[in-house]
Amino acid sequence: MQELEIRHDPEKRIVHTTVEGHTAHVEYSIHDGMLDILHTVVPKPVEGRGIASRLVEYAYDYARRQGLGPAATCSYARIWLQRHGGTP
Q1: Looking at residue 1, what is its pLDDT?
Q2: Is the C or the N end of the chain the one with fewer CB within 10 Å?
């Protein structure tokens, strides 16, 4: 798996990376002590490389460090949590 330079903008509540000129990102909100991933977007030319998983993992690691629980409005993030021992 290639090395990704993941960037985080807490003010905009977005985690993102650029691969081959294409920007992939995760948008989230924070409420009720939870970090809720709202959208996960990976452009088609760079799909299937594990980028979404790494962005979601980064966001939830940040949440844990901030004392926040994981939540997932985004269907991809919901499945990711189920596969990695989180909720929902």
Answers
A1: 53
A2: N
Mean pLDDT (10-residue bins), the chain, 88 residues: 88 97 98 97 96 97 96 96 80
pLDDT of residue 60: 97
Determine the structural domain holding residue 58 and report its residue range: 7-83
Q: Which residues contact 14 (CB under 8 A, 6 or more apart)?
A: 8, 25, 26, 27, 28
Residue 76 lies in a domain: yes
What is the DSSP track for 7-28?
EEETTTTEEEEEETTEEEEEEE
Other beta carbons less than 10 A from residue 80's beta carbon = 22
Q: What is the CATH number of the domain that holds 38?
A: 3.40.630.30
2 within some domain = no
